[in-house]
Design a protein that fits this description.
This protein has 336 residues and is mainly α. It has 18 helices and no strands. It is globular. The N and C termini lie far apart (62 Å).
Amino acid sequence: GTRRTIESHYPPEKVMFLESFQLFFKEDFEACRLKMEDYLRISPADPPAHFLAGQASFHLSRWKQAIESFDQVLKMNPYHVPARLYRALGWQIQGNFGKAIADYGSLRKMDLDAIGPEYPMSREQLQAVTWLAEGLSRYLTATFSPLIDIKQRQAGWENILKVVDKSIELDPDNYLAFYFRARVLLLLDRNDEAVAAADGSIKIHPGFANTHHARGGANYNRKPRTPESMQRAEEDFTRALAIYPGYHASLALRSAVRWGLNKPDEAASDAIDAIKAMPDGADADLACNILRYASSKVTDVAGLRRQLIEAEPFYLKSRRLWVLKGVEAVLNFRLG
């Protein structure tokens, strides 16, 4: 078998590294991360191993662990372009826009000639990353700056598409570029194009939960909204959650989709899971609203009440506590 072939050609620690690689490409990110931790105890000064550990954590949405792994890579090799890009994405997702923009700036200014010909990326791929970094930096400014109005934001997003398209032209196998193209198109309410961009990303790399979530959002927002587009959205959010079960945004939106598909019990269950994963914020607000509507329609009233009571430690400090207490009162009334 494959394992016997690997073991006959490589020392034990190298076998561990190669098996981690295989686990990553099978999308078993947790097993990959654990095996890579074992390997790094034996070989701690191995940049590719730290990068793979960071990639596994990134795909599990464990942003802090991922950033720590990419930190280790960059300490040993400051010209490691993918590590700096993924670290910037980790900072961005965590809301640390200053550090994200600093990393994107470093990528944009990087001297590609200093990287060396032995680097395992072509010059076109490296240039593609610098263009993507430019687009992501602009995305943060256009989307989150309080100093610009909606027209300026929309103009900014249109310009970002041109930058991201340049990145895709240079490297048509960069799934992240297609993913961010989908994200920007979503903001512009160009949902059919967003689905196509997400399809491009998923075709290259199907194991990134965020892309399935983005495609789900685009299918959900399609106009006119149809049962078919809602079903596709439900499938997309389900796929995102299969990769990352704690994805609170996918839980909240799937609860809304299932409510729209007349599945009140499933919608309510998703809403509670979304609130447990993130008790406050826009996703929790959406989940609370769905739960409020669904509480009068669910068939398993006792089961939902039990779920709600079990979730109480997660939402006691939520700003929507009054809504959830109201839901509990409705369920108590229905139970008599």
